[in-house]
Design brief:
It is a single chain. This protein is an all-alpha fold and 123 residues long. It is 55% helix and 0% strand. The radius of gyration is 15 Å and the shape is globular.
Amino acid sequence: MATRKTKTPRATAEQAVERYAFLDGVIRKPAEVNLDELESALGMYLIGFHFGWKVLYVIHSKRTIRKYEEILGISIREVFDEFGPDADRTNAFTAIQAVSSFWKLVSGEEKPTVDVDKRTLNG
């Protein structure tokens, strides 16, 4: 399988160890959590470095973000950049660029002027 060309730099060895230790700690944390939600929260953590917190807010509901943040013990706005290096590969980014207010898009008050599936990659 060919590796897709992305702008996100590979994690350094130190970052990789740090991120793995974080994920392992979340998994080992004694908590009563649904495994599907744990798996999804871990995935959100991994793609956040590529796409940024604004894309995450567009593809997930505010409620889901809060749930995953609770599982992970983080605030995504503190951990990830507003837009990650590969944000422009997402339809969510396209939708964000097509509205006057990001938070109105997230709340559903404003619809993007482009018709895209915000949960998919565009390239």
